[in-house]
Design a protein that fits this description.
About 40% of the residues lie in helices and about 15% in strands. Strand 2 and strand 3 form a beta hairpin. The protein has about 425 residues and is of the alpha/beta class. The strands form two sheets. It has an eight-stranded mixed beta sheet with strand order 5-6-8-7-9-12-10-11, sandwiched between helices. The N and C termini lie far apart (about 65 Å).
Length: about 425
């Protein structure tokens, strides 16, 4: 009898995961946080299981707003909380499903013409990697640092035009729903291989590039096939809830959820995992980086959204040893980024955004010892959030590439290469 019950639960979970979720009448609100009591409540809601509140901008400090997606059946409860604690709040997105539909129209043709006018699926990205690995085999080496929980190869490339170059490592789409990060990364790979712009050719040929466009392939595939808002991995450490936040799972300043930087609840969006590097996707990434530390001089982790260039630390307000240099380099990158389309990025420490523990940025900087570590948060500032329209992929990519040029120029000027 017990075995039958277990089998029934497993089958229920399997079939319930197969149906594509919709977000009709889900709403996103911007909520001002004006006092410690309000901040405490926001942290409690974010860390809770089954809360039906999905934080698009996490609670951080008094004075910094949060952005939260609220399910229709929670709207009354949400309004009660807002009223009781006297929150000021405003509606940002009235119907999330409308934006989801615009990201991947049903009548959009799918063919072998890989381009950046729409978001690509995991299979399309893999097929494109197959093609460029063959076409550019003289300068491009296919890479994989291992397999995901669901046995998908975590694929990347090494672009190297000459021996002896310092290397940049790019980790992208570790949060599954941040599609703009993977799309931008594949565009950057293409530019490093094909652009005739002299400045791009300079950084392509005078630096080596380890680039992994999708470092959470299980989650990315699931965000296309089932749940557009899926953030985590797809591992199972709990009967009911799946996955962990891979950007809370690195073995530096990892903690068990007692603070605001992560959660120890397997059903929370910011579940840190049962132990550091519990997720195959994070532990194998770290192993790969450690094996190439004599080569890698810059670590870039690419995310969305909020238009930021960030540097360590996430878990503490204590400044990094070379904070002044990181700030100077970050501001140079932001200034150059602005030139393309006038997009304004803010530059500061990761901790100034919000407290987070077990992040890849903190691990790369303090755990692996990579002095030039930066996290990007791409477009936009909340109009679309994680659902950035496809027509912004190329503009976002252009301005980010320009920022990379300035980041490397300023780093070289300061003597890091």
């Amino acid at each position: 009898m017990r075995n039958l019950i277990v089998f029934s639960v497993v089958m229920f979970l399997a079939f319930s995961n197969a149906e594509k979720l919709r977000f009709d009448n889900y709403k996103v609100y911007k909520v001002q946080v004006d006092n410690e009591e309000q901040l405490k409540v926001m942290h409690q809601i974010e860390r809770a299981a089954f809360s039906s509140y999905d934080f698009w901008r996490s609670p951080s400090y008094v004075g910094n707003p949060v952005e939260v997606m609220v399910a229709p059946h929670k709207l009354s409860e949400f309004e009660d909380i807002m009223s009781f604690l006297k929150f000021s709040y405003s509606l940002k997105i009235a119907n999330v499903q409308e934006l989801v539909d615009k990201q991947k129209p049903a009548n959009q043709p799918v063919n072998d013409d890989f381009n950046w006018e729409r978001y690509q699926t995991m299979d399309e990205i893999n097929a494109w990697l197959d093609r460029i690995e063959e076409e550019y085999s003289d300068v491009l080496t296919p890479l994989s640092y291992g397999y995901s929980y669901e046995l998908e190869a975590i694929r990347g490339v090494l672009i190297s035009y000459q021996a002896g170059n310092p290397a940049i490592f790019i980790e992208s789409n570790i949060h599954a729903r941040e599609w703009i990060s993977g799309a931008t990364t594949t565009w950057i790979i293409n530019e490093l291989l094909t652009s005739t712009d002299p400045e791009i050719r300079h950084i392509a040929e005078n630096y080596d590039w380890y680039i992994f466009p999708i470092t959470n392939p299980d989650g990315y595939r699931y965000s296309h096939d089932v749940d557009r808002m899926w953030r985590s991995t797809r591992s199972r450490s709990d009967w009911i809830c799946r996955g962990a936040d891979p950007n809370r799972n690195f073995d530096y300043a990892w903690q068990d959820g007692t603070g605001p930087g992560a959660s120890d609840d397997p059903c929370s969006q910011i579940f840190a995992g049962p132990y550091p590097f519990s997720e195959l996707e994070t532990g194998q990434l770290a192993n790969f980086v450690n094996q190439h530390l004599d080569h890698i001089k810059v670590y870039l982790t690419l995310h969305s959204f909020t238009q930021l260039i960030l540097y360590p630390y996430s878990w503490t307000p204590a400044p990094a040893a070379n904070t002044d240099d990181l700030s100077q380099i970050g501001h140079a990158a932001a200034d150059r980024l602005r030139e393309s389309f006038g997009t304004e990025y803010t530059v500061h420490s990761m901790h100034s955004l919000y407290i987070a523990t077990g992040t890849s940025g903190d691990w790369a900087y303090a755990g692996a010892g990579i002095d030039l570590t930066f996290a990007y948060e791409f477009r936009d500032n909340g109009t679309y959030g994680f659902l950035l329209p496809p027509d912004q992929i190329i503009p976002n990519s252009i301005e980010v590439m320009q920022s990379f040029i300035a980041l490397l120029e300023e780093s070289e000027r300061l003597g890091y290469f």
